[in-house]
Amino acid sequence: MTPAVQERPRGAPRPQLWRVTERESFQDLRRGGRRVRRGSLVVTFLAPDPSSPPTPPRVAFAIGTTVGGAVVRNRIRRRVRAALRGLLVVDRLPAGTYLIGATTETAQMPWSKLVAALSTTIDEVTR
To answer: Could you tell me which of 118, 127, 124 has the C-alpha nearest to residue 39?
Structure first.
């Protein structure tokens, strides 16, 4: 069985994931985004405007303090961001705006399960 995410060759450029920083994008996600919850992950997706120029996927994270301290929340962000980059390399992350939420279980989840859960959730939300 081929892994969902393969390692990139050394020296290869890191895939581009853009951050969501403007309030308007968060409001658009809330108003028109499609949300799917699977296990410890919640993914909200907003398709890109067809008239705008193509851009890399844009990602924001919503990981509250109830999940844990700053160390736990940052670990979750780093792990999910790395999994998203891996999915982007193998062309399994469509362009658009994503809001990713996660619970405490995500910090301890084995890597293969995290990638599989994220991939499944993204596939479902982008249909």
So the answer is: 118
Give the strands of the sheet with 18-19, arranged side by side. Answer: 18-19, 58-62, 97-102, 41-46, 34-38
Where residue 64 sits, what CATH number does that domain have? 3.30.230.10
Calpha distance 54→49 (Å, rounded):
9
- Residue 33 forms part of a structural domain: yes
Number of domains comprising the chain: 1
| 103 within some domain | yes
Tokens of 111: 């890597």
7 has pLDDT over 90: no
Give domain status of residue 74, yes or no: yes
Of 97, 87, 80, nearest in space to 123 by CA: 87
CB distance 18 to 99 below 8 Å:
no
- Assign 11 to helix, strand or coil: coil
Stretch 51-69: mean pLDDT: 93
**CA proximity to 38, closest of 97, 114, 127, 110:** 114
